[in-house]
Amino acid sequence: MEATLRVGCPTYWGNLVPALQHTAYADALLSNQFESLVREGRGGTILPGLAKSWTVSEDLTTFTFTLDTSRKFSDGTSLSAQDVKKAWEHGLSLTPQSANSSLQDVLYLVEGFEEFTHTKSLRGIKVIDKATIQIRFKKPFRTALSEFATGRMAIFKISNNLQIGTGPYIIDSSNDSKLTFRRNLYFKDQAGYSKVEVTIVDPQSAMHALESGEIDVYAFADRANIPACGPGKVTSISCVSGMESGHLTLTLNGLKNRFFSNREHRLAFQYLIHKHIKLEKLPPNYQQNLTLDPQPYLPLQAGRLDDSLVQELVAKGKPFVPAFVRATQKNPLLIVTSEMNNWVQDLMEKLGVKFTSNSGWIETRQRIQNVL
Length: 372
Hints:
alpha+beta; 5-stranded mixed sheet; 12 helices; 25% helix
């Protein structure tokens, strides 16, 4: 009898339709059933996925993908360019489960989006032949490949009123507390487990669940305090960082007439964060498998900059720090963040930066509304 892998998840994953998923948990789980045209590799490089190759026009408006039509959905049918077009157009027509359609962040830039409500078709997505799909944007979209690599842009087809994919597993059953996967027998490389069971295990109970054998793996372990993962610990439980591309992101609102529309304020904030954040001062959950990238908040560029140049760029904010701190005394900043990231506010307050009394943790929908 083949083994069943039992996985613990910190909380409910939410909607499990690619075009409607809006949580990191759902994104991770759905990647077992659905695949995208391309995928992200080490260092953010874009690698082939369902597409074997692609070309991009010089003006960055037209992306043409050649598909691997040997790939099969879990019903045995082969992938085609028409499946890609249908998946995205169907997904865009679904009622959003979050602040807006998960696909809209990308597809609103496609030619013909304005008419989609009436036509139910995007003329900017063109099926050239069975193996070739072309996407035309209304203006240059330099990050499109990265967007195509996300789970929300995964390709699916409708079979017996269900969304099916080309990934190694099929969601066999699901409810609000348990999710069961079984193998996709048409996947090109057979998966290691015939069955995977995912259950909700709150972070406080994660260690006990691992020790008792209730679960074999705890996903998103950075959300839990796993003592076995601390420095110098020797135990049968080990921690592995599986999120090479996972990042903590702090976005400054630089819209016109807002506090951070002042470039000197942005430079000062960048300097303070970069120079004063200390790994050992962060909450325990973030001290595990965490490294600091020396290139935060820098302008977009091809590849990475030399670290010595980065240090010079960051140092440009130092002269503006006193004025920045004084400005926050007059106009306190509003910072809204996830429950796990309140340490950002604590750090900045110790450096003299003042925040409004209603700053702190709020839900994702509220955070989005405050930024707009």
